[in-house]
Amino acid sequence: MTSTAETAPVPWESHVGRGVHLYVDGRRYIDCASGTFNLSLGYALPEVTDALHAQLDRCAHLSSELTRPKSQEIFGLLRPFLPDHIESHWFRDLTGSTANECAVRIAQKATGRTDVVSLFLSHHGQSITATGMSGNAFRQRSFTLPFAGSLKIPAPDCAKCFYRQTPHSCGMLCARRLEDFVEFASSGRVAALIVEPVLGNGGNITPPAGYFSVLREICDRHGILVIADEVQTGFGRTGTFFASTGFAKDLKPDIITFAKGAGGVGIPVAGVLMRKELDVLEPWEHSTTSGANPLALVALEATVKYIRDHDVLDNVALASKLLKDGLTELAADFGSVGAVKGVGLMLGFDLPSAAAVARFIAIARENGLIVRGSRYGFGNTVKVRPALTVSEDEVQDILHTLRTSLEQLESE
């Protein structure tokens, strides 16, 4: 891949993006992290940016009271991509953190219970509640982040099984032990289980087949609502519009949260989708000042329409196979590369240590490729997530640069 100042645009500011490429001071990079996984359609897609420009000329902000009709219209666009039982929405958020908080409020109010179960290695956001639910001690150790009733259970990480089992004989122990935690470690008032279909920041952990159905069975038995945190997996990232209608359909979530890629080109927008009977919140019980603002809704609408009208999910299927096959080849060719894992264009591979990941990220950046690591630098997974519009040629560029960077890493 060639990166030259002559072929790059010369913006009046130092950063400009086009498609999967980011130009910084005239140097071109392939952004294989899609911003912070929120550029589902890449940088500056005209179908989204044109709609944003037109809305900006009309007005950039309105009270959410005035944007309710547009929210309802957009929910109508989403309905064909949702599980049949998801019939209501709450679009008053800009970030996944507060969308997940909204989901917890819904669950607590609807059930009259308090506790929320989450997984080791999970990541549900940066706010106090969302951080308190997340499954990493390093994110909480410098603060007092009380969330009474936050209960964490082992993640379905077959490569590093908490119970020292093997997938063919474990009987899905990581899921079945949920019942023991509810019985012996909770207050007896569990409102919800919150689950990421793929534990993205935790190391791109994809649960084994059968995991979601066991969780659903246990939650049904105990009257526990299931929240699917699709902040990272939603809007086509795993190959279906939501993971809850694809490989994670057996989870049958009562509530789905979304953010990140919902804005298409990086515009902040988030929301909650739910069963009709869970539409229990009053307007004053959960709202953010800029939630459901016109620019956010326009970006959301344009993103849904683009994914629907431009065969984006078909492109994900094609590009993800090419990319995963290429990553598997790299794992075979390089001793430092461990498990290749993930679904759709939410892929990753392991290196021996967090230090190796940090060094690899730096080498790749020098070679014109932007990637990110897991667990905020504490993990050993390199995450590979280009925009859903990535072309076959761009996939080959990504694989070529990954190979070159691995060769440099192993030669040091």
Task: Walk me through the structure.
Helix content is 36%, strand content 17%. Strand 1 and strand 2 form a beta hairpin. The protein contains 12 helices and 15 strands. 50% of the residues are buried. With 412 residues, the chain is an alpha/beta fold. Helix 3 packs parallel to helix 9, helix 10 runs parallel beside helix 12 and helix 11 crosses helix 12. A 7-stranded mixed sheet has the order 4-10-9-8-7-5-6, sandwiched between helices. A 4-stranded mixed sheet has the order 1-2-3-13. Strands 11-12-15-14 form a 4-stranded antiparallel sheet, with helices on one face.
List the SSEs and their pairings.
Layout (H helix, E strand, L loop, with lengths): L14 E4 L2 E4 L2 E5 L2 H4 L8 H13 L5 H15 L7 E8 L2 H16 L3 E5 L8 H6 L16 E4 L19 H4 L1 H7 L5 E6 L15 H12 L2 E5 L25 E4 L11 E6 L18 H16 L2 H22 L6 E4 L2 E5 L3 H13 L2 E2 L1 E2 L7 E4 L7 H20 L1
Parallel strand pairs: 3-13, 5-6, 5-7, 7-8, 8-9
Antiparallel strand pairs: 1-2, 2-3, 4-10, 9-10, 11-12, 12-15, 14-15
Brief sketch in words of this structure:
The protein is an alpha/beta fold and 412 residues long. 36% of the residues lie in helices and 17% in strands.
